[in-house]
Amino acid sequence: MLQLETPTVSDRMASALMSAVAFAGEQLSGFMERPIRLRGTQVERLRLERLPDLQADADRAVIAIYLSFSGALEGHVILSFSPEAASRLAGLLLMEPEIELPLDDMARSAMGEVGNITAASFLNALANSLGMIIHPSPPTIVQDMIGALLSNVVLEMAMESTDALLVHTLFDLEGERLQGEVLLLPTAASCDILESELAQCK
Amino acid sequence: MQMTVTTHSAGLGEMAVVRDSDAVLAARGLGSCVGIAVYEPNRRIAILAHVMLPGPVSSPPDPAQPARYAGHAVESILKAVEKHGGRPRDLVIKLAGGAQVIQLHGKDDRLRVGERNISAVREALAAKGLRASAEHMGGSTGRTLCLHAATGQTTVRVVGGQEQPL
User: Fold this and answer.
1) Does domain B7-161 have CATH number 3.30.1330.200?
2) Phi, psi of A14, rounded to the nearest 5 degrees
3) Is residue B133 a contact partner of residue B93, using CB atoms and an 8 Å limit?
4) In this structure, is residue A155 part of a structural domain?
5) Region A96-121 average pLDDT
6) Which of A14, A145, B7, B109 could form a disulfide with B29 if both were Cys (CB 3.0 to 4.6 A apart)?
7) A67 near A115, Cβ under 8 Å?
8) Against a cut of 0.80, is the pTM above it?
C-alpha cells in the first residue's frame, strides 16, 4: 500500500463545511416538512488516492447521489448512504413506511430530490459564505459497492484533483439517526481558492 | 469444529499470492479496475491482481503496488508463478471488472478507464501468449472477485447479488 502524507484540514475549512452541512439539513427539513437535522461529526482531508483504501469493506452496498458544480469553484459532490438509510429517506418523501430495496424508479427519483436539495444547499451555503456563485448540475443516483464507486471517481479525477474533503454526517430524522457521508471533490485549483478565501474570512 | 478460512484482500494495485493454501483471495469492490485471478493447479499457486490503470509505463513496478498497471501486473504474476515452480502454460486465468460505475460530468469519453483497463489487460496477457478462460467485465456495475486457493474455483458477486461461479 502506498504511504501518502495525510494533508491537514484547517479549522476554518472544517467549520465552513460543517456549517454548510447544517444549512443543507435546514433546507432539507423545509423541503420535507419534517424536523431533520444534519450534523457534521468529522471532517477529513484526504489524498484522493487513499479514498478507496479507507473502505475496508469495499463491497459494502451504498446508494449515492452525485452531482458536479461549476462557476467560481469547480468539482464534484457525492452523498452516500447505506441502502437502509436511503430507503428511510425516500420513504419519508413518498410518505410510505417501507421502501423495498433495491430502490425502484420512484424511490430513486425521490432520493434524487433529497440529494439535489441537500447537495445544492450544501454548495450554496459554502459559496455564500465566501461571496461566490457556483452552479450545481442535476443529480445522478448510483446503487453500487462503495469501493467500485470511489475507485471509479478517483481514477477519473486523477488528472485534475489531488485532495478530497470528507464530511462524516449524521442525519437526525425525528429522533432516528442515519449515517451518511458528504464527499467534496474540488479540482486542485478550486481547493486552493477555497483555502485562500477561507483564510481571508473573519 | 468449524474451519476458519483466511481471506487475503488485494487492494488497489496490489497482488495477493499463496501456494498450497486454503485461503480465499479477494478483490472487493472492483469498479473500473480489473481483477486477474490466476490458478496453477499442479503447484496449487493462486494469485489475484487488482489492476488500477492501463499504462503503459516505463518505470519498473512499485513493489507495494505491483499490479497498479496492466503490463506490470502480468509481469508480476509470471514472476510469482516462476518463483513457486509453476508453468505459465498451465495457468487458468479469469478476469472481472472494468465497469463504468459512474460517468463524471464534463469528462472526456476517452478517459473511460474501465474500457481501457479491459483492453490493456487482455493485450498484456496476449503479449505473453496467455488468455483468460472466463470473463465478467464491462457494464456499469461493481464486482467482487474471489479465488478459492484450495480448489481454484473463482466467483464473482455484484451488489445485492450472490456469489456466482466464474
Assistant:
1) yes
2) -60, -45
3) yes
4) yes
5) 88
6) A145
7) yes
8) yes
pLDDT of residue B111: 66
The secondary structure of B114-131 as a DSSP string is: HHHHHHHHHHHHHHTT--
Q: Where are the beta strands (DSSP E) in chain B?
A: 7-9, 15-19, 24-30, 34-40, 45-51, 92-97, 134-137, 143-148, 154-158, 164-165
Chain B residues with CB-CB distance to A1 below 8 A = 11, 14, 64-65
**Mean pLDDT on B91-119:** 86
In a domain, A4, yes or no: no
Distance (Å, whole) CA B27 – CA B14: 9
Query: Does residue B85 contact residue B43 with C-beta atoms inside 8 Å?
Result: yes
Is residue A5 in a domain? no
CB A33 within 8 A of CB A40: no
Nearest to A155 among B62, B113, B157 (CB): B113
C-alpha cell at B29: 469492490
Contact B106, B123 (CB under 8 A): no
Contact A149 B105 (CB under 8 A): no
Q: Number of CB pairs < 8 Å for A and B?
A: 112
Residue A194 within a domain: yes
∠ CA B54-B58-B62, rounded to 5°: 75
Alpha-carbon separation of residue A59 from A55, A173, B9, B11, B164 (angstroms): 9, 27, 12, 12, 15
CATH code of the domain in which A77 resides? 3.40.1550.10
Number of domains in chain A: 1
Contacts of B114 in chain A (CB under 8 A): 152
Name residue A46's beta-bridge partners: A164
Judge if ipTM > 0.90.
no
Could you give the CA distance from residue A171 to residue A38 in angstroms, rounded to a whole number?
5
Handedness of CA A155, A11, A77, B101 (dihedral sign): positive
Percent of chain A that is helix, strand, coil (3-state, to 5):
45, 30, 25
Q: Which domain holds residue A168?
A: 11-200
